[in-house]
Structures are given as C-alpha cells and as structure tokens.
Amino acid sequence: MKRHINRRTFNRIAGSMAGHAALTSGLLSAAPFAGFCQQEGKRPNILWIFADDLGPDLGCYGNGCVSTPNIDRLASEGVRFTQAFTTAPVCSPSRSAMITGMYQTSIGAHDHRSHRKDGYILPDGVRPITDIFREHNYYTALVRKIAPGVEAIGKTDFNFTFPKPFDGRHWNERQPDQPFYAQANFFEPHRGDNWETVRQQDKLVDPTSVDVPPYYPDCPEVRDDIANYYDAVNLLDKKVGVLLQRLKDDGLEQNTAVFFLGDNGRCWLRGKQWLYDSGIHIPLIVRWPGVIEPGTVRDDLISAIDITATSLFAAGIPIPEVMQGRTFLGPEARPREAIFAARDRCDETVDRIRCVRTKQYKYIRNYMPDRPYTQPNAYIEKRYPVLGVMKELYAAGKLKSVPKQFMQPTKPPEELYDITYDPHEIHNICDPPEYQAALSSMRRRLDQWIEETGDCVLTSSEAK
Question: Which of 3, 96, 161, 351 is the most buried (most CB within 10 A)?
Fold first, then answer.
C-alpha cells in the first residue's frame, strides 16, 4: 500500500531537478572513472561494508582506545572522509535514504521501521540502487557467509516493501565475469546480547583509559559502557579484516571499489536517535586501487545519500534525474555547503526534529519542544545503562552542569552550536546578539531544504 505523502511537492521538485540532473548525469557517465573501466576491459565491482551504530571511533580517526588495524589499513589504501553524516540518527530511515539516494523525508520513509506496519511502497520514480545496478547487468548480493565462524547479518531494514532487493547472498553466486554490487552488514558495535561475546575477547579496553564526554557524568558505570562500545569496535575490525581477505583471495581486490561506513552514529545516549553529531557523524572510507590515491584525507561535507550517487558514478551508470544524492568523487563532484538530517518516530517514541550543519554551525529545530530529550523508549531504557545512571543522579539532585541539561522535562525550540569551538554541542548560542545573523542564516537554510526537498510531513497542510 502507498501512504499519502505530499506527492504534489515531490513531483514539483522532481520536475525542477530534471533539467539539471539530465545534464549532470551525462557528464558523470563520461568522467574518468568510466574511462578507467574501459581501459581495464571490465566494470568495477562495488562493495559497501556497513557497521551498525558506528561513529568515527577508529584508530585512523585518531581514537587511541581502539585497535582497528584492518580498517586503518583500508584507509591508508584509499581516502578517508572526516565529515560524513547520515540523514537520520537511526538505522531504518538512514538505510532507506542510502539505498535510494533520497532523503527519507522526501519519500515517506522517515518513521523508524514503518514498513512493519503497512508494507509501504516507494513513490513513482524512486528505486533502490540494487534495481538500477541490476538493470545494468550487475549482480546484487547481500553477503552472509564470509568464512568459517564469520558471518555478516542479512540486514536491510528499509522502510518500504520492494520485491527482490538483492539477487543472492554472496558475490560468488554471480555469472563468470559479471560485475557485482554487494553489501556486507556487521552487527557490531550495535548493542545487544552480542556484547557478551564482545567481552570474551582476549584483550579488553581499560575503562580508566577512555575519555568521558562532558555531557556524561564521569563515573565507573559510564566508563565501563564506553569501554564496552570500543571493545565491540575492535571485534568489528577483526570481521572486516576477514571480509577484505576473502575479497583478495577471490582475486577481486584490484577491481572493487570498497565503501566502508556506519549506518548511523554511535549507540550512545545522546547519540543514536538524536541529531547531535554523535548520532549522525559516521566514518567513511573508500578504497579503489588504481583510481583513488592511497592515504588521502578529505574534509568535504558528505551526506550519506551521496554514497549512493557516487557508487553509480563509479560504475559508469547515469545518476537518476530525481536522485538527491550527488557524487563526491571525480572532476564533476560538487561540494556541499551544508548537510541535513531528520529524526521522526523511533520505535514507539514520537518526536520530530530537523537539523542543518555547515563546517562551523549546527542548527537544530525541535518541533515538539514540550517533550523531553529522554522520552520513554523501551530499547534505550533496556540497552543504555548510562540513562539509568543519569536518572538516578538527577532524581537525587547529584547531576550537575552539562549532563543535567539533557534530563530536563522540555527541550528548547531551537538549538545553535558553533562546532569550531564546541564540538560536543553543549553551549546553545541561540540568544547572544553576536550569533543572530548566523541563527537567521541557518533557519533560512533549513526552511529552504524542507521546501525544496518536499519534506512529506513538514510541507503538508497538517503541519501548517
């Protein structure tokens, strides 16, 4: 069934983009990547490696508490992006956006796991990229078995129903010499019963060695939780290493563009399910031997929907006219001045938040400021021990300063942060006179994005 969304706006936006997109798609398909494919006599394979709930907490990103030699090596062999962000702070809307190259708010996929309720079908003209790859004779695979004892999870979690999203479960099921697009999804460092396995590793992170963010109380329970997350990151690295070795053993390493990323930010309180950087900032590493210069580091602002467009571009496939993602590789790459993200219902918890982020500022608009940051949520209350600690300290009047802000019964309608000196986003600067120009500018950016992309909730008559 198709849910009612603001299709009039969607169609208008699609039409206004068509002329520009038709021009750019022609340029993209003729870019040097396509020439590389022809010189080699075959098209490149595309492999996405997903880590659940992973922020940029890797050795190559400067985190000294983790040991991630395999992912660090991948970064040394390709390009590491320092400013990549998802369009949602939770898995299913984020993955819905990435697999289509469209903002989830534009296509009715904004509520977390809404597909379980009504079997939602995408708007006309919007397709998963697996369908586009298949149309160009690529084999599509959701990788499961990698090696004895090492498996990826068969996670899709799209907020829509689509017949046959993948052709099979491994690239080795394709026809001889057929190029492939594959996803390998690892559960770590997602929270769950798997953390019992995580803690069985030979070497565990020392909780006394971790840095505690200023929005948490510094206590043993908090330090232990952060250390557990880092332990899960270490286990993730081992599994990624096995997958990359399998790719090499199969003789596919040299002709495969590998994209390593998180599906949303950290599985921390104030991270996943929230629009602070901790919830949407992800690692992004791309290795493509012979095309990308090893050891490159770039600080471009990247939206996760751009990974979709870039993957098509790398394969020499024209980017669909309606796609909102843009390529970030090659001479036709167009840098972003800002990224945008949205949070709607997560599990049973209803909220509505939008944000825009430039390299200097983050602006957050809370559409339900009467609701607390920590609304009841069964998953978070069960899996996030830090919440229980903070609730106890707050009730006892022992939660001080910055951590106390997050436990208030209401939220401000607007939040503005200067990321350059406040990377943890703890000093809301909406009121000082010297920031009013920046506040007005960020408001306009967000309003324009909502209108231009056809936010199917906020541009509806009900929202007005």
Answer: 96
